[in-house]
Amino acid sequence: MPALSPDTLLVDLIDERPTRARILDRLGIDWGRMGDRSLAEACEAQGLDPETVARMLDVAVETVPTEGNPEWLSVSLPDLMDHIQSTHHDYLRRALPRLSKRLKRASRNPDAETSRWFERVRGAFQALKSDLMTDLRREEEYVFPALRTVAEGRVLPDGSTPSRETLRHMADQHDDTKTKLERLRSLTDGYQAPEGADRGLQDVMNRLHELEVDLRRHLHEELHILFPRAESLL
């Protein structure tokens, strides 16, 4: 494989080797938000040398075993959807209810200013949660089963196939989810608890950050890998 160019877009280098996302995370490069920027531009924003980072990414690819790290551009669509469900959907089912409870507990007895801030944060989280659960059900009850049928060369029971419009609608919904995620990040100033907050509130902020990290990978795998590959079959 040729050496990675610093001019490569982040979204392209991750599509080619998903394992690179973990290296970028450790370097503080937010590939989820900067996917349409080149590696050089992203490095400049972080004060990093792009040539050094490019070499790091190449070495990481060469040394990470392929077993257990499949390339999502080449595995079958059913395998990719299995991965999304077992990794990201299952995570959301566990994390979202727990976060709701933690947010409720952490909101008890704050001062007036923190209380107003917290209500905005809770509102933003609930809006995001509602979108995620709606999309998850739609994908598992219709979109994924329909795509599995098409990938296997069959048609749906009514003789139809899923339309490209369905995938485009899902992509639009995911873009809306990104907007809600950006609002949550903005309200919390990058998931920082207010000054003087107790350990419980800071723990909630840490959990929200974990949610964002997983969700950005989730949306990336669907928007940039699953949906384009599926659309090519329709």
Q: Please state the oligomeric state of the protein chains shown.
A: single chain
Distance between the termini: 31 Å
Beta-strand portion reads under 5%
Task: Specify the overall morphology.
Answer: flat
SSE pattern: HHHHHHHH
Low-confidence stretches: 62-68
Kindly name the structural category. mainly alpha
The amount of helix comes to 55-70%
Report the biggest beta sheet as strand number plus sense, adding barrel if it closes: none
Account of the 3D structure:
The protein has 234 residues and is mostly helical. It is built from eight helices and no strands. About 3% of the residues have low confidence.
Q: What's the helix and strand layout?
A:
Elements: H1 10-16, H2 20-26, H3 39-46, H4 50-63, H5 77-106, H6 112-151, H7 164-187, H8 199-231
Key traits:
flat, 8 helices, 234 residues, single chain
